[in-house]
Amino acid sequence: MTEPHDASAPLALADRGVTIDLIERYDQPGPRYTSYPTAVEFADGMTPEVYAERLAEANRHPDDPLSMYLHLPFCEERCLFCGCHVIITPHYAKAAPYLDLLRKEIDLVADRLPDRRGFSQLHLGGGTPTYYQPDDLGALLDYLLERFHPVPGAELAVECDPRVTTVRHLDVLAARGFNRISFGVQDFTPQVQEAISRIQTVEQTRQLLEHARSLGYRGINVDLIYGLPFQTPETFEESIETVIAMRPDRAAVYSFAFVPWIKGNQKRIEEE
């Protein structure tokens, strides 16, 4: 007789439909997200005039909702594994003027899209969007939402670092319609966290995830990275099982891109 499965117990990979064939099918290189637009989209010749022409063309399709992205590049400290375009400063006053520049850009784009203001996707990435204090982040979003509006069923998403994100951040975002959230975990193993200079506890992530769920966020994601220093299959499996026990809606697992000749912060991993 088969014993009933305990819903609180983690399932084996095979029980979740994850087979070796499935892993091998998707075990291949693909484009990585480290900036927006992604690297493959960059090209010479994107002048202000060309940008204005593209916006004018976009405005001719008023019924098509926009996909919008705001890059908030600031972080309090450097994570050694990071390959994103970030600005490191613990001095909040240095990052505050960037919000004024974003408001100017929002106005520039809105002026060129007078007939196309609805969006189906809004994403805040970084950097660390929740680097900014909740009220400042909320004020920026209010400014944006006065000029652009979500269409029914729109996805409003944010990337969060559990070390600097507070429940107040989640409250402010939820009050403005945010319904998707991604928590950067990478790995829960203390030795790995120390090696990549990103020390955070399981409880920090769990508390935020549970609060997000209580607020009605319907798309809760956790990011993990494999290939980090001092990881082993066994310790990484423990991190995976810890995440599964939190019951996020999804988990994204990325390979570590070790490119110290491009990202100088990764050279410290070599030295250590």
How many distinct folded domains? 1
Distinct helical segment count:
9
Architecture in CATH?
Alpha-Beta Horseshoe
Please tell me how large the radius of gyration is. Answer: 20 Å
Strand order of the largest sheet: 1-4-5-6-7-8
Textual characterization of the structure:
It is built from nine helices and eight strands. By secondary structure, the protein is of the alpha/beta class. The protein has one domain: pyruvate-formate lyase- activating enzyme. It has a six-stranded parallel beta sheet. Strands 2-3 form a two-stranded parallel sheet. The longest helix has 21 residues, at 92-112. The chain starts with 19 loop residues before the first helix and ends with a helix.
